[in-house]
Amino acid sequence: MSTTVTETVQLEDVVKQQFLAADNEECSQLRELAKKNKFKPEIVWRNVALFAALHVGSVIGLYQFLFVAKWATSFWCVFCWVVSGVGITAGPHRLWSHKGYKATYPLRLLLVLMNCVSFQNHIIEWSRDHRCHHKWMDTDADPHNVNRGFFFSHMGWLLVKKHPMIKQKGATLDLSDLTSDPLLRFQRKYYLPLVAIFCFLLPTVIPVYFWGENALVAFYTAALFRYCFTLHATWFINSAAHMFGYRPYDISISPAESIWTTLTAFGEGGHNYHHTFPQDYRTSEMPAMFNLTKLFIDGFAKIGWAYDLKTVGDESVSRQMNRQYYQLMQQQHAH
Ligand code: ST9
Ligand code: ZN
Ligand code: ZN
Questions:
Q1: Residue numbers of the domain that contains 250
Q2: Is the CB of 142 under 6 A from ligand 1?
Q3: What is the pTM of this model?
Q4: Would residue 240 count as lying in a domain?
Q5: E strands, the chain, in order
Q6: Residue 87 resides in a domain
Q7: 148-163, pLDDT tens digit by residue?
Q8: Is residue 26 part of a domain?
Q9: Which atom of ligand 1 is nearest to the CA of 231?
């Protein structure tokens, strides 16, 4: 009996002491507060107009990608999608938000450059919002709170002013590890010119220069369509992967195991695992073909550029799953 108690406490420690574990007590307080204070969001029309324009351009880009662009340009679009996607998953997500592993200067530099192709806010801002998302998940302090609906958690949150609770709670986060990194400060300082070059200019100029693609075709496909596609692949993790799928690691939370979003987001769809064990650099137990980001980090670990890779032991994971199974059984018996 005493062994069981000790094991349970240790398992709870494994879950609760992960860096960025959800603060359940504060989350319940925030949910109670939200019931009393109704919040009316203010639409940011500049963002509505810019995203509408991006989507019109992307529809043209999709048509050209399928029927007009040279083969080399289509491959180039896919390559840019991988670079910009892994520039999020291995960078601001697994490295900078979660400290799932450590990286040497050359790998951090590479990830910063890849991240500029992604254009999803500079890394300090992305990680600050993401830390809020994990710590105060599904509350008003979560920038893309799924309780505000599918569209809000998908892209609506980028079309309105933030809830004051995000700023209030976010201000209590320790971001010194991010703000003390000169590479991240450099990216923040020169963010717009860097994005103009890496997200739009280079993806357009390279097909024109190297294989004579029409400049407008290159722009619509490799810049606009590829950017918009990568945004939706990311946003589906906040919307679909917080709504649809199974929950073997923690039955009580919204994030779920979502196979199809993992394919477009290079291994980020194992979202029930990720929110239960947020510091695990793998972010899921899914096999390697569903986790390109893990392969990327493992590859750099082989040459010593990535190190201190954090994982949760198989035994802890299966004990956590067993516990969920028994809780589910108990709930079913109670009904
Ligand atoms: C984009 C980001 O798309 C997508 C992130 C998705 C995350 C996904 C996570 C899922 C897991 C990973 C999966 C990866 C899969 C990848 C697959 C790839 C294939 N804490 O924001 P402001 C304060 S971006 C503390 O202007 P407003 C702070 O003082 C797309 N404080 O608020 C701040 O000033 P500063 C491109 C905070 O006015 C001040 O408030 N980008 C926090 O309400 C003002 O902040 C865009 O479209 C906080 N968390 O405006 C830009 N937040 O920053 C869109 C704020 O100087 N954004 N403060 O310190 C905006 O225009 C605005 O942010 C706004 C809100 C209109 C949304
Ligand atoms: Zn995360
Ligand atoms: Zn999430």
A1: 39-334
A2: no
A3: 0.95
A4: yes
A5: 102-103, 306-307
A6: yes
A7: 999 999 999 999 999 9
A8: no
A9: 3
